[in-house]
Fold this protein.
Amino acid sequence: MASVREAAFELFRAHGMTTIFGNPGSTELPMLADFPEDFSYVLGLQELVVVGMADGYAQASGRPTHVNLHTAPGVGNAVGGIFNAQANKAPLLITAGQQVRPQVTIEANLTNRDSTLGPQPYVKWSHEPVRAEDVPAVLARAIHHAALPPRGPVFVSIPMDDWGAEAEPDRTRNASRRVVDGRAAPDPAGLSQLAALLEQARNPVLVAGPDIDASGGWDAAVALAEKQHLPVWASPATGGNRLGFPEAHPNFVGILPPSIAALSAVLKGCDLVLVVGSSVFPYYPYQPGPLLPEGASLVAITSDPGEAARAPMGDAIVGDVALALQQLVELVGESERTGPESRPGPGEPPAADPMSGSQAMAALAAVWPEDGIAVLEAPSSTQALRNRLRLSRPGSYYFSASGGLGFGIAAAVGVQLAQPERPVVCVLGEGSAQYGITALWSAVAYKAPVTFLVLRNEEYMILKWFAALEQVEGPPGLELPGLDTAAVARGYGMEARDVSDPEALAEALGEAIGTQDGPRMVQARIASGMWME
Ligand SMILES: Cc1ncc(C[n+]2csc(CCOP(=O)(O)OP(=O)(O)O)c2C)c(N)n1
């Protein structure tokens, strides 16, 4: 007769979930007993980074990923990461240990009181099994929930005495065997109408969002843009956890700004805005204005009913993004419209001393490997990176769509573990880096050859920029003097270099990217400024 633990691991195996990200405590040890040889356990030293690593891994592998946390305090530490994971639509099965059932009522030490409330409202489902024998079926249900669109984190609290209980053979077998497919094709009538609208439009544009990449719709998006000669905008960088379109493609015209007024101003003159795989829109900051330019209509294609429902304007078609794009390409003819004018190259950034963020991103672009993956958490250099790198392959860019810091270092480790053949470069603001800094240890421990580029400007630059925008005079707490992230990295066992000019930066980055035996850090001194080009 199988134990609940054996049944659960059989279930994880059936779903290809053999890499577990965790930080253990006494309440999790019964789960980890006799840890099977075909599983690996990736240790994170604090729960925010445990979730961040799993988030990167889940997105880059496309598979639900198991996170194991330590009862209430572990879940508490993880909540910022869970908030990020729901915005990134990362399918995470998050489990946490719980006191033994006989001691929950008396609230013995480490009891996770009202356990299902802790990760709310950022999980799709939160549950503690009613009986020990239900654990495998609950885990199966949770995995399906996480993987169905819109994908996202789910939570299961498991009393520590459940793992040794006897599983129910019939239910366990069924739980492991069930396949649940959530790729729903959109309504064909809606798509035909959209195809007609697109063909008749004089000046339509495509806005490409992150779920094009996540759904596998990259090639279909390119085919649609080429067949219909569409100018393509990326959805605002604030909410774009992935890229939806190759940024060196001749149809690609740029990244939409994130405020209502600026976004509609940029789209002036177009009569149809087709938004694919993005919310409408991930706005920030608030600059009121018309939602759309005069004379324009909007149609969004999304697999997320919540995104469709909350959009403030336009129509929406709910269905799998890749299937929708593939069908749309078949439905439309070759357009007679002239295509967009090619976007000018980024040019040489003006020299500055210390170097600007734009110069730092130009140095990175100069040594960028063809198949490189960028993981980005560098607020004042976000736009500069996007403008200079021109990433053009699917699965090449990860960013936290929520804006919650502490994602970058951890996600880069997870992405590298999921895509071991591709070079991963993580670009960080020095302030952002500190939230998930302990993930540097995991990068070293698992020999993940990530290149960490830390941009050292000794301040929270983006908040100074926001202060000016919001007309806030003299806010405290925006300076970061004397923070030596390279020295911190060395403390975690990572080789790190300091540079202060673009030539030395390009050389150090080239060396780090070429290194296969483990992670490297390059800390670059940069000037104060918002780097937009
Ligand atoms: C968890 C969390 N705490 C605080 C913030 C607010 N915040 C946004 S950007 C930022 C500063 C980032 O500084 P740094 O990484 O040095 O980048 P810079 O703006 O200087 O480029 C802060 C504190 C946040 N987004 N997430």
Notes: The mean pLDDT is 97.
